[in-house]
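Hello again,

I reread your note about wanting to compare the complex against the isolated chains. To keep things tidy I'm splitting this into two emails, and this first one only covers the full assembly. Below are the input lines as submitted, including protein chains and any nucleic acid or small-molecule components. They are followed by the predicted structure of everything together. The single-chain runs will come separately.
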Amino acid sequence: MRTILFLLQKEFLQVFRNRMMLPIIFVMPLIQMIILVNAATMEMKNLNLFIVDQDLSSTSRQLVDRFAASPFFRISGRSFAMDEAESGLKRGQCDIIIHVPANFEKRLVRENRAEVQFLINAINGTVAGIGYAYAASITAGYNRDILLKWNNPTAAMTPIKSIGVRTSFWYNPELNYKVFMVPAILAVLVTVIGAFLSGLNIVREKEIGTIEQINVTPIRKYQFIIGKLTPFLILALVELGVGLTLGKLLFDIPINGSLVLLFSTAAIYLLVVLGMGLLVSSLAGTQQQAMFINFFLMIVMMMMSGLFTSAESMPDWAQTANIFNPIAYFMRLVRMILLKGSGLADIYRDVVSLFIFGIAMLSLATWCYRKTT
Amino acid sequence: MNRFAGFVRKEFFHIFRDKRTLLILFGLPIAQMLIFGFVISNEVRDVGIAFYDQSHDAVTRKISDKIVSSGYFLPEFNIQSPDEIEKAFRSGKVREVIVFEPEFGKKLERLGTANVQLILDATDANLANLVSNYTTGIIQDFVTKSNQTTQRPIQIVPEVRMLYNENLESAFLFVPGIMALIMVLVSAMMTSISIAREKEMGTMEVLLISPLKPMQIIIGKVVPYAVLSCVNVITILALGYFVFGVPVQGSLALLLAECLLYILLALSLGILISSVANSQLIAMLISAVGLMLPTILLSGFIFPIENMPKILQWICQIMPAKWFIIIIKDIMLKGVGLGYVWKETLVLIGMTGLFLLISLKKFKIRLE
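Full-complex prediction:
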């Protein structure tokens, strides 16, 4: 036990001796919170809409006005000619063209049916999909209204059935994308700090040559690993606290669940991350190598974890792969605890899985670390 | 010239000796392409839903069946009381609860109208929005169909054409972005690290007193990474074309020329960083924070720039990747020629010149 304490003292000294360390711990979350959260927004507003109204009837005008009134669209141009609109789309001046063909109103009255055309720049599939969903729902809303207004006498005799659909958005009534991103950024923060600090640690001692000095001491392998692990665990948890505070202050994200649960989940998750970092570190030959291996693992695992898009919509093989992706678990857990206030009863299976992962990872790291060269 | 060739050979040896890094350099673009292409999607599929049916009649059953059979949703369980709604969401399995009011069928029959409530877990705002739109669409479709037996209601039919990317493939968006990212990674980051390493190890001194001119040293350092970048670009384009069907609508020659220009830009950035950084770690940090992150976040790679706050939009303007991605998208997907992208190309040329000038000024031929 005493050996571990001395090792801990040494590691802490080493971490804090580095003048870059403290700024990194406090500035990194700040930068990530401000830039990442603001930049990483899939929130749809101000989609540029180009209007081509070739009908110019009161019906078509009312329909177009609905779009102008919506916060999701910004009218970027109007024209009578499709060519002009399409060239605008090509030049990137607008994202969506709404085309109301001539005789729109006439056909609607006579044939009870008329088409509106939407041309969408779909290079960004997400924006296009959501943009179209908004456009379609505005059109449908207008359709319902004229249905009620134009209800002609013949129809009144056989009343048209209708189902009122009311939608309520829980946990995030304003559909604020930041609420979705901030917990994810917290998960990223904890992961990056944990993985890179631990990943570069042992390999650095190897490069400098100090690892030999530790190898000749009677320190046991598990003591060495615990001594390396604990400081980073504490640092990463502090980092989580800093990030959470910033998230609350800057973006007022909801904290519905128990903080104790959040931090203990994070501690268990960190066992996995740190174990993985130490494993990379004891396998790599140079810092550059360790950095690249870490970098590769992080990018792949984060992308798969449902950082930007929900993990449930991924293909089945990706969901199967995610069983072995610790970031996916933590990403889900942070969101559930913070936003929905999930308790231990709701998440215990994930937590247990993470714990098993952590133990396995740490054992592997201890086993792979060789005191002989 | 012979000397120079020898120096370049030495650099290639350096690179090929480190098998793991090499593997990652070639593996990363492929892994990223596959992940972005196959995993990241904005499809709605198998979203967990729960029904809270207070009516249990033929109509609600029909609507429920219609919703379930649409393929977008996966019914997880049925809810019996309002308290269970909260519980369902907290378990994390359910994204949407569909509530039918009591006597739904009867009301629809007698009064001609009935209400259904959709409660969504909006922690993922975009998904919630899509899911509610899909569900509403299915329910409205049900109403339209059941009305059709009596008369045809007035209907505005939205017709949609998704231009440049009919099937909303995410690969279309990501191919240009991954190209920008990988080139920055290989050209800028690797170059800066490799020059910084010579400084750290002290071998830079040996190179400087050799008969090679400083200019030749730099060019020699840079050539292998330029070659690697070219290989990566071709890999990404081929993978995009053959696996994901991402077309090259415009001229391939123009596309490759623009890529070369961007490689040159990234290399000059790498040289600039290495002239500032003294150790590998610093070079790595500067390239990661100063180049990688902005390339991923502030270039329109994943997140549309127009949605960002004004200040960030201004910062985006000075990101080379932003201009490069615009050019590549326009050439590849919209099939336009130089006439449409000459402005962006000029910006890139200007940036390259500027970075080269600064790094030439900063490059020291003596070590302190």
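For quick reference: Chain A has two domains: 2-41+177-368, 47-150.

B.
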